Amino acid sequence: MGAPSTAQRAWLSRGLNQAGGKLPLFDSQGQQVCERTVHSCIEKGWAEPWFSNPLKPDWIVCKLTDAGRAALT
User: Cys-Cys link to 68, which of 22, 37, 44, 64 (CB 3.0-4.6 A)?
Assistant: First the structure.
């Protein structure tokens, strides 16, 4: 499976201190997190969809998984 890329690691690490491991929709500069990063982390089992956003159904709200936490160590 390999280690997370720099972009994946940056996104996943932001869920470490959030309630339930919630991952942000936006990066630290206020830009939407790249969909490719989100989908690749889901495919690798490091993140999983959490719930639907009724205001923006195309946004994928995710949370960090145990495998994601392990990949960061």
Answer: 64
